[in-house]
User: Fold this.
Amino acid sequence: MTRLRIALQKSGRLATESLKLLKKCGIRLNINEQRLIAHSDNLPIDILRVRDDDIPGLVMDGVVDIGIVGENVLIEEQYEREFINKAASYEKIRVLDFGQCRLSLAVTSEFDYQGIESLNKLRIATSYPNLLRKFMSSKGYEFEDCKLKGSVEVAPRAGLADAICDLVSTGATLEANGLIEKDVIFRSRACVIQSASNIDQTKQELINKIMSRINGVIQAKESKYIMLHAPKDNLQNIINLLPGAGNPTIMSLTNREDMVAVHAVSSEDIFWDTMEELKLLGASSILILPIEKMMG
Ligand code: PRP
Ligand code: ZN
Assistant:
């Protein structure tokens, strides 16, 4: 069978998390920093490590089968292709739990910002001209675009633009450049996309298997294993406090007629507040454990 090709960001916000996710799915990889391609030695999978902006195009053109990418570059590429009438089909198969960021308009502190209308007809530096164009025209405003692939945040001080439209995650970059975030135009997360072109059946089965493992990894991260001792007469109230713990296991305790042991998987983290409430209801020996892997 031909090998499944997965594109990941080589370096940047999504790079480490993307690799970590694949490793947790049992894809063994030997990454050589100098090399673009890495072959898995236990599954028929090749990893292509490229610039994030290139990933949507590689998937849309069927050069790779799947990609892990931010919705920001994905939607930008889709709009760009719609604009120039180029095929842009892909399938978003899963939203991931990392890479959260927002695309925002920002100005210097001297700029008298009264709302988006203050930017009408001004020059805005961005790496996302298509997302910005759609947003501004939906509000009925125009702008001059100044497309920069990097260092967008220095544009206002360098006199290249009146404002910027750039990705913000922690806000540190804006702050370091004396810029103030004004309006969010798009919110993004990492996601897995698949090529819409015909993928042969064995490859598709491998994709499905990887996706089911990804689901398991994310579900496990969000879930906790709970063990506690509960008084029989307050058992239901205690179980009701455990989020998403459908059918807990109840076991008897040696030499205790009034108490039982409860084991349950909770679909969410259990916070200190909940543990304190459990204790007030008579629970004791409360243990919250992380879950490594999960399969339904
Ligand atoms: C974005 C953006 C800023 C930085 C903001 O770059 O262009 O430089 O992240 O993050 P902060 O709010 O945490 O400071 P990105 O990671 O997308 O790099 P790239 O454009 O080179 O892919
Ligand atoms: Zn990028």
Observations:
- The longest helix spans residues 201-222.
